[in-house]
Design brief:
- With 481 residues, this protein is an alpha/beta fold.
- The chain folds into two domains: 270 residues, NAD(P)-binding Rossmann-like Domain (Rossmann fold); 202 residues, N-(1-d-carboxylethyl)-l-norvaline Dehydrogenase, domain 2 (Orthogonal Bundle).
- Strand 8 and strand 9 form a beta hairpin.
- Helix 11 packs across helix 16, helix 17 crosses helix 22 and helix 19 packs across helix 22.
- The structure holds D-mannonic acid.
- The site of D-mannonic acid (CS2) has 10 residues, from helix 11 and helix 15.
Length: 481
């Protein structure tokens, strides 16, 4: 294999004047490769004081300390098939971890008069929602409401931090969700308001009046770092960067233009501020993420390790394209000026990037949180309009097979999901139609309408059976006929 051609961008802006104006919660690989790259690009384009404080709420305390030791500088490597562009990011001014620095330090940061925006990448389950509302039965939520001086959920931390701002007589701030949920800002607002209402109805009213929760669509494929990707980065840099990440060259950020105060000029970095993000969110969630999930479950069952391995198989490639164009696109109200055929061609090209090695099992995680918006919402529309959805049926049935933890070639499939205990119990005591019905009874995933639809249930049962008899590749090939 030839060595990648590396180009390198160093930090050239003056970092000494950066103040803590953005707090990022959930500082993992995606935040580094997406939000922080936009932020870094802003700082390259405009002399500004918009520095970022970053936090992780649970594990990863050691990673933040490593970042402190590197003067908060880290590398993002943008990889295409034969190129690697290295960018040094200088936007971070401080790290915070509630266990290391104390819960009160985190709250004090939210109540810092300099703070204007909190960005969130806390994953779908981080919002602690059930049916669009804060899940009052979630043990972490119950605990956060009970404990006066602590919180472990992002929602509890936000509400308690905002209370300090209210008490201090400070202005409201903007809380910007960057997770793959439709209407992510609206859902986040709902969860924070419902939590605040329990603490003090007056706080809830203050947040409603003073704070803003714009929706946003984020896009950049960022696989989890592995030993091999660390080594690749080290070879390109000439030294290790334990804080570095590798991702694809493409990046997109569409943000609802609704801010409580100052707005960072992320548009200078290529972000779009728009009045309505919904068409962008749905397009990305259904075309990109929906086909990602399709490939993740069916690919993993067929023994394919990465998304680019799936793209190397003409059956999977054709199916991904057909799922996008024939099943998902017709359910969309597309943003103005989008050519869906070009958008899906570009997705296939991005999925085919062999440098990424994006694991099917990584994307397969948290299916109970992802399926509703990626596949089940479009299926509901097909059921209403009487249109066909054979590939989406295989994706849902593929998820069910995946949840048994074994691939078709006998390999172990890791199940990371808040409902994994239920899946295991169902798989131990049932198979076939009974097992499918057990999974369909999970109302947080399927609601009550889908299990009540004879059409839906029988198509999922048939797809599940086909996968068992013929395997993923043959079942997909049959669905393409
Ligand atoms: C993926 C996403 O893991 C997953 O569920 O579908 O992380 C995907 O790579 C990003 O949304 C791309 O922007």
């Amino acid at each position: 294999m030839s060595e990648p051609i590396s180009t390198q961008l160093h930090v050239t802006y003056d970092r000494s004047g950066l103040r803590p104006r953005v707090l990022h919660v959930g500082f993992g690989a995606f935040a580094k490769a997406h939000v922080m790259v936009f932020h870094d690009e802003l700082l390259r384009n405009e002399s500004s004081d918009w520095g970022a404080v970053v936090t992780r709420l649970h594990s990863g305390e050691g990673e933040l300390t490593l970042l402190d030791q590197a003067d908060h500088l880290f590398t993002v490597g943008e990889m295409s098939n034969d190129d690697l562009m290295l960018r040094e990011i200088g936007a971070v001014v401080k790290t915070l971890h509630p266990k290391r620095d104390g819960f009160s330090a985190l709250l004090a940061q939210i109540a810092d008069p300099d703070l204007s925006v909190i960005t969130l990448t806390i994953t779908e389950k981080g919002y602690c929602l059930s049916g669009g509302h804060l899940d009052m039965n979630n043990p972490a939520v119950v605990r956060d409401l009970r404990e006066a001086d602590d919180a472990e959920t992002a929602i509890g931390i936000l509400a308690k931090g905002l209370r300090l701002r209210q008490v201090a007589g400070l202005g409201g701030i903007t809380i910007l969700s960057c997770d793959n949920l439709p209407a992510n800002g609206t859902l986040c607002r709902q969860a924070v308001l419902e939590f605040a209402e329990q603490l003090d109805p007056d706080l809830s009213r203050w947040i409603e009046a003073e704070c803003r929760f714009p929706c946003s669509m984020v896009d950049r494929i960022t696989p989890a770092m592995t030993e091999a990707s660390q080594q690749k980065l080290e070879a390109a840099l000439g030294h290790p960067d334990p804080n570095g990440v590798l991702c694809e060259p493409f990046r997109q950020w569409v943000i609802e233009d609704s801010f409580a105060g100052d707005r960072p000029a992320w548009d200078l970095a290529g972000a779009q501020f728009v009045a309505d993000v919904a068409p962008f969110e749905d397009m990305k969630l259904r075309l990109l993420n929906g086909s990602h999930s399709f490939l993740a479950y069916l690919g993993a069952l067929a023994g394919k390790e990465t998304i680019s391995d799936c793209m190397a198989d003409p059956v999977f490639l054709t199916a991904a394209k057909r799922l996008m164009l024939d099943e998902q696109a017709p359910t969309l109200d597309l943003p103005d000026g989008i050519d869906v055929s070009r958008y899906s061609d570009a997705l296939i090209e991005r999925f085919s990037n062999t440098a990424l090695r994006h694991k099917t099992t990584q994307i397969a995680s948290d299916g109970s949180q992802k399926l509703p918006q990626r596949l089940l919402a479009p299926i509901r529309q097909h059921l209403q309009s009487g249109t066909e959805w054979p590939l989406a049926a295989l994706a849902v049935a593929g998820w069910m097979r995946y949840c048994r933890g074994r691939s078709e070639i006998g390999g172990h499939l890791p199940i990371n999901d808040p409902l994994s205990g239920k899946f295991e119990a169902f798989a131990t005591r049932s198979d076939g139609a009974d097992y499918v019905n057990n999974l369909l009874s999970l109302a947080v995933v399927f609601g009550t309408d889908l299990p009540a639809s004879r059409d839906f249930v029988s198509r999922i049962q048939t797809a599940y059976e086909a996968l068992g008899v013929n395997g993923a590749a043959k079942s997909i090939a049959a669905a393409l006929q």
